[in-house]
Design a protein that fits this description.
By secondary structure, the protein is of the alpha/beta class. It is 31% helix and 31% strand. The radius of gyration is 16 Å and the shape is globular.
Length: 189
């Protein structure tokens, strides 16, 4: 019997004004941009281990870069593992393709592995509950549209949840995610 896939899919309220210029100006393609964990004093704040994360992902074939230029970011080591495993922000300058989804899932997996520790067994990483926020930048003629998608579930279910959300024609009308929401759209199989 197949294991049940559960998770939540919601609209992520993000606009072009929320994204760094280098992401908005990026040519359409398969590059994944790692969004900062937070901002303070005009600087993008990333966890201190993300440089290693980026190198590992590039070595594994993922076309990934920081969303913010080097001079606009700082690294902090004060994030707790649970806090950082929980959420990862990604931006892509094209519609979500199967290959991009695989790159996003690999990025989330490596981030969780890094947060939990390199000695964590793969099964523990797979069971980690994560939220993946995806800013999909779609350009048409003179218009740029940013569609936000927030997926929460076990890491092992994230790929299926993203694929379902991408194929859902009503995803533009997904409810906004937020702490006051009663319950985002739950998906169970």
């Amino acid at each position: 019997m197949a294991e049940e896939i559960t998770g939540a899919v919601a609209r992520w309220d993000i606009s072009a004004a929320d994204l760094p210029e280098r992401v908005l100006a990026a040519p359409t393609g398969s590059r994944v941009f790692l969004l900062p964990d937070s901002h303070a004093d005009g600087m993008a704040l990333y966890r201190d281990d993300v440089a290693g994360l980026i190198k590992t992902l590039r070595h594994r074939g993922v076309d990934i870069d920081f969303a913010c230029a080097q001079e606009d970011r700082r690294y902090l080591s004060e994030y707790g593992a649970i806090e950082v495993v929980a959420t990862i922000g990604i931006a892509v300058a094209t519609t979500l393709t199967t290959d991009l989804v695989k790159s996003i899932v690999l990025t989330a997996w490596q981030r969780a592995r890094s947060s939990l520790g390199p000695s964590s067994p793969a099964e523990e990483v797979d069971e980690a509950r994560v939220t993946v926020k995806i800013a999909e930048i779609v350009r048409a003629e003179n218009e740029t549209v940013v569609r936000g998608l927030e997926i929460t579930g076990r890491l092992t279910d994230i790929e299926n949840l993203i694929q379902r959300a991408v194929s859902d024609s009503s995803r533009a009308e997904l409810p906004p995610a937020g702490p006051d929401d009663a319950a985002p759209e739950n998906i169970a199989e």
